[in-house]
Model the fold of this input.
Amino acid sequence: MNSMPSDTTSQSSGARNTLVLVVYTVAIFTSALLLFSVQPLFTKMVLPRLGGSPAVWSVAMVFFQSLLLGGYAYAHYLMTLKSRTVPVVIHLLLLIAALFTLPLSIASGWGEPPASGYAFWLLGLFAASIGLPFFALAANNPMLQAWFVRTGHPDGPDPYFLYASSNIGSFLALLSYPVLFEPIFSLQTQNVIWTGGYALLIVLIAACGVLLLRSPPMTVAAIGASEGDAPAPTWPVRLRWIFLAAVPSGLLIAVTAHISTDVAAAPLLWVLPLSLYLLTWVLVFQSRPLLPHWLMLMLQPIAIAGVMVLLVVGGEQNLLLTLGGHQLCFFIIAMACHGELARTRPAARYLTGFYVALSFGGMVGGLFAGLIAPYAFSWIAEYPILLALAALCRPAGASAWRGGFALWLLVVVAGFVLIGLSYREGSVTEFLETNRVWMVAAFACVMMALAVLWKISRWSVAALVALGLILIRVYPADDGRVETVRSFFGVHKIVVTSNGQYHVLMHGTTIHGAEKFLNDDGTPIKGRPEPISYYHKDGGIGRAVAAIRERKGGPIRVAVIGLGAGTLACQSVPGEDWKYFEIDQTMVDTARDPKYFTYVSACDPNMKPVIGDARLTFAKEPDGAYDLIIVDAYSSDAIPIHLATEEAMAIYKAKLAPQGAVLMHVSNRHLELASVVVGIAEENDLKSWVFNEDSGRDAEYIFTTNVVISAHEEADVGKLASDEKWVLTEATEGQRVWTDDYSNVLGAVWRRLRTPDE
Done:
């Protein structure tokens, strides 16, 4: 008879525990969903301010990681207070205060970027615009987990499963943005939805606070006592946590920049590596990880070796290799690092301090890859450096002397073999230059085999990785790099061919221009340089310039968006007015320097380019001013998307003189962009003609060009309208037009894969 009250109490306690678990899980999930959906949403709003550069996302990640650290530190401080009520009240007031700053918008006074210091300007813009709501969201995960521990829930002593729930929300937010929210909703609608979700989150967190405050104080005290014997983490352990968090965080930025440079600066390519990064957190904090830690540790050297091979071989022509290879290797490396963090996580009472260490490490890695490295190195050094450091993320296993001795014995033997083989080529240097791919690949395989099979120490693995990466750097694939210049907008290389005949400008992995300095007999070329690469007289751009000039019957006024090596300067004739719009000052300096290229100095020495993003600077030009507008702005092989939207075309159209035309260069390895331009032109009541021809003269640095010219009437493009190589093209039925609110990079990739030769 006395069992009834006990049963009732037990049922009541079970119901309460279920309610606590559900409310806290939903709140943490919703918070993570909002935290990570705001990142691509707001960054896309900011992107047009700085030319669509991949660096915008890198700097954004530094900001988000820094605010994450601030939020975690704030949560850690509140949980040191003895009162349960004060943290709840303070945090709810913060959330409500942040609500009054919504919906999201770019803060007043941050409309146009300065002439320099873009990274720090961006950090200020993000802080002024979304700093408060993001800070409030950043604190939720560790704080709610700490509250959960203090509710007395049976799962409270090990609340790290809630961290997995948080990362699932983050993961879903990132994946859903490019495939669901971005294609369906405008930025304004996305903003409204996000603001509504934020208001809902406040209600959920208030419910979490009520459940905490209604929990018996004795239960909270009991939980604290049960953990009293857990030793506090030592400073070496804390520093190890920071290091383990910093390396994959830096790699995240390096990998994202690498793949988005060659495809497009778009949310789709931002969220893919970040989603994998978050997925690793989800997987390692499971009670029974789907991918065991020992397996990831075994695969990690293989992944590092894989990246080394990818870096030396290139592979940018292959989209699957570029996207899949680098991201797969990154995933394995991050799993190994984060698995070590999960293995060494502390007791629940030290939870918030643990998260502070993780967020601090994430910020350090982000600062290195996103801010420090671009200023410290003239080339993309952060990627290989972080690869070598990744080897040090392995646990300190017992390294046998036998393994170390065998390693260096192998190095010595390899050195003698190398010296012997080099006699075929004349010298060791010539041998390495000729066989660099095989040498680095062999080096990577040896490193992998020793690490996996022989279990050599992490320091030895790191040393092997460093040696292989040094080999890549000393003997690069380029024929003769003369200088490397790095700016906020990427890395430019000026390369001289082995015979000195051509100077070639490369941005990322893509040729952006070339000039012939020597004749075939080795004599210097004199006089006005002849445009080559994509701008030769028989290519689409050369034919279009000639046709517009002939149609007008005299000098033409031309606006060029994107300078490159300055090749188009030599498409002009005396008496014409050509104006250039370029976002990167280092590009202007390179084009003007006759030791690199002579197009500008020979054909337009008084050129005064307009520096800044063309969407901002070109919009200030007088309406009806130009007979021809040439849009040729690329970052490596990626066109800034905000220059290929319906709104961008409306700006170009407004600046056209009567019978003027817009010419857009859309050659691209990975994206089919011709139909995009035809679509945005048709929305602006313009007709379009597409030119795509294989030159068959790549050895002479005369390349295939794919261009689209758009105008009001056929007469406006002159003889091009009757030229069989120019095809009058209508917008593709059912293909949504790109706007500032919508772009479908995945669709452009799919069309290129379906029709690779078009």
Q: What stands out?
A: The first strand starts at residue 481 and ends at 487. The chain has a mean pLDDT of 78. Residues 3-46 form the longest helix (44 residues). The radius of gyration is 29 Å.
